[in-house]
Amino acid sequence: MIYTANSVEDLDGVARQILSDLGDVRVVAFNAPMGAGKTTLISALSKALGTLSIVNSPTFAIVNDYDMGECGSAIYHFDLYRLKSMGELMDIGFDDYISSGNYCFVEWPELALDLLPDNYATITISVDQESLSRTIELSFN
């Protein structure tokens, strides 16, 4: 599935459509170059899911957890860019998060691909350098 965001304002609608298209899938890997808008899209997805938390990049924390309020669920947002080994990934309890049943949004997922469940989704973001619009592609693995 392919979505287009011509501006940041388009992301709320795109996020709602992505969540609808995800169905029961709760783990999503994000592929995009630096600065393409991974965290911005994750913020829109989290907002559409009802979090009241401020969503920001977990670059230094590695994982942020966003409270979903009364339903008692959480959203886990990973930025694996700085991790260099599978050991570091295991040290943060990545497999426990992924198997929690909560939404898990994973930026820079390359190191973790072997740990993702069979039914994860991938979102690929590409930027048109002329118009700065984003093409967002959702695929299922």
Molecular structure report:
With 141 residues, the protein is α/β, with parallel strands linked by helices. Helices cover 25% and strands 28% of the residues. The protein contains four helices and seven strands. It has a seven-stranded mixed sheet with strand order 1-7-6-2-5-4-3, covered by helices on one side. Strand 3 (63-67) and strand 4 form a beta hairpin. The longest helix has 12 residues, at 11-22. It is globular. The relative contact order is 0.25.
Query: Approximately what portion of the residues adopt beta-strand conformation?
Result: 25-35%
Low-confidence stretches: none
What structural class results from the helix and strand content?
alpha/beta
Total beta-strand segments: 7
Order of helices and strands: EHEHEEHHEEE
Amount of helix: 10-25%
What is the assembly state of the chains in this entry?
single chain
Q: What separation lies between the terminal Cα atoms?
A: 13 Å
Rg to the nearest angstrom? 14 Å
Average of per-residue pLDDT values: 91
Number of helices: 4
| Broad shape | globular
Provide the spatial order of strands within the biggest beta sheet: 1-7-6-2-5-4-3
Major sheet characteristics: 7 strands, mixed
